[in-house]
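A note from the maintainers: we've had questions about how concatenated examples are separated. There is no special marker in the raw files; a new sequence line simply starts the next protein. For clarity in this README we add a label.
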Amino acid sequence: MTENYTALYEEHKKLGASFTDFGGWQMPLKYSSELAEHHAVRKSAGLFDLSHMGEVWVTGPQAAAFLDYALVGKISAMAEGKAKYSLICQEDGGIIDDLIAYRRGEDKFLVVPNAGNAKVVAEALLERAAGFDVLVEDASAETSLIAVQGPLAEAILLRLVPAEQHALVTELKYYAAVEVPFTFDGGTQDLLLARTGYTGEDGFEIFVANGSAAALWQAIADAAQEGELTPAGLASRDSLRLEAGMPLYGNELSREGNPFAAGLGPVVALSKEGDFVGKDALAALKADGAGATSGRKLVGLKGLGRRAGRGHYPVLKDGAVVGEVTSGQPSPTLGYPVALAYVDVEHSELGTALDIDLRGKSEPFEVVALPFYKRQK
């Protein structure tokens, strides 16, 4: 696989990052301690490079109608300035990717797919655009994405924004985005700021051209006082999103799975007007009770012992296999093991006692409500 490097690769090297391949990208796994990075995001703030994510612009008179057809959600109902979590599915209802769509104007949208799927999603959108008056442009290669996540995220970013523009940041709602003037690198640049994230904390994601990414990264780091901001890698991002009960493509979501089993039924707008890719298959799956009365369902599991389940470990009920772990590890915040797993629907009720087969030894777990962790607002 080709190795890609983000525009911030040299910054990570300077900070002593350990790197790992993720979706074909060389990404920082951690800088020092993944545990320290995790706790920093929960208690103060973490600085993340998300430049491996994709950015696909969809513009034109039929942009909203096109995205209603290409994605499972009712994108046309979204107000300008808002963002919406959605899925792009196959004709058979299998999930190609989960993504966020931002409405930047009446006829202008930004679609942000996951790293390893960015090219696939851009190609699928291009293919589905046939017959629509739209332009689909993949800007992933020119765009960097920097996230600041945690209780101090807003306060830190405000130091880079002119005082008279602070309301743009402080009044920005969750799952919304706005152009904000940031002062850095000897000037001011209008950048797209989204109040979104993958950590379960308040936080922001900033879209910036590759050429300005390193300067913005450094400016954010310089704006923070000692102990306020910690560079954070993929390891802590994974433990944070797991505590927040957020799915990861390739773990909880796949082409073989479906939205209903994954607990994402509300994302699928079967009632919206017109056809969309996968509609018939998804309607049939829902009618068959997928994730409700048939098949398997994604659940949260709380460990009652000390040992954690890991991806692909079998889930047992009275010694018989009834499911499989998709993600699992000890929760740094909560102090006990947590896992996401697909289990047969008859064993998915809250409070159900299950075991995870940890390499031949059964460890007790219990089905609990998601998310495992919810921040105090």
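[label: protein 2]
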Amino acid sequence: MSSSQVTRRRLLQTGSLASLAFGNAQLLRARAATRATNPAVRDTSVILIWLTGGLSHIETYDPKPNAPSEYRGDFHPIASKVPGINLSQLLPQHAAIADRFSLLRSLTHGYAGHDGAHKRVLTGRIPKTPTGFVNDAPGVGSIVGKLREHGPPGVLPFTSGQRADTNVDAYSQGSAYLGKSYAPFLVLGDPSKQDWSVPNLAILPEVTPRLRDRRSLLVQFDQMRHQLDHTGVMDASDRFQEQAFSLLTSDRARRAFDLTQEDDAVRQRYGMGPYGQQALLARRLIEAGTSFANVVMEHPGTPTPPARNVVYNWDCHAVNCHVFDDARWRVPHFDQAVSALITDLYDRGMDRDVLLIVTGEFGHTPRISYQKGTNTKITQPGRDHWPGVYSALVSGGGLRTGQVVGSSNQLGERPHERPLSPDDIWATAYRHLGISTDHTFPNLSGRPMPILPQGQPIRELL
């Protein structure tokens, strides 16, 4: 391919690091302008742990021990480090650090399908249609990537998922009318595997082949940097575009992706499965400058293939899994990974600047249902989709911790006190990032669209 063929338009179409760099150039200009007027601003960021399929609140953050057996399920609550905050027995490591997070137990919205709920939660807006996963409004990560008002230049918007065949629309994280240059950079596959590498770092598919071993990660970055220089793209870019390219091909970025540089004891603390290593990778990328890291936790990684009575993600219908067997298998991996990440952020002094949000798109039905499992062929318990009330965890961000905000009723069916919406979480996150929710972007019709038309920062956390 000749140099003249590597055009800006072609780079934008690839969805590769190069396209992100053009988007980052505008972000860098805004940050430089802010630093010129206020050099003392804090560097802040967000890690979102996305539990696709929906977290069953009764099996985790909102147990109901006094409810009838057809609601409460198999597990009993345990006391935590904070008096009055009880958690599922499956979360002992959470319980030991409950003073370092807050639980939101009264989240609610009206979308019972995965697609509508994904869009509702990940954009903070009412979707035009409840069907389909393609956003009609940009995901929060794309907005942060475009309009980050302060802090050092980020490496890249980031999404970590295990499925090699996925894309940003699978989780409704698309950039919609902001344009593809603000789509998240996908880091796919299982970072706990020895042969894992970042599969889409190539500037163009025909330039750099997918590399197989971890050691070749450094070579991959060097090849990309060489191709950029050779084609003259760097020469044609202005100072901020050059800075963006340099960030995306820098030693700092490539070191962040190389988990072998992390101390083995730290890796073991997170857990050597995909949940733990994805969470650790997010922390490393945040340290390298990423402003918004989304970790998609689906399959815990063991056993492979999974047992017949469990399901790939958190969608614990009876047709998919035995809800209690699935929780016994899945939740301990989750408990270890999330607790290790919270502890790591605090121990490293990152708890003021990094806001951690842990949520799925909804909860699951308080009343247990029974149906024949697709894989087991026997009748088993499960829980269906339930947006009526669900729970989330927030930690860090300089927010108040060691508390529960809101509550559900005795059966875990609906909010009892302090109903909250996904918009309230994002209003809190935007405040942490220094982004005004009143800012507007033109949609495809040219109409100005506010970043967040409703929702308020959660006052109990401030």
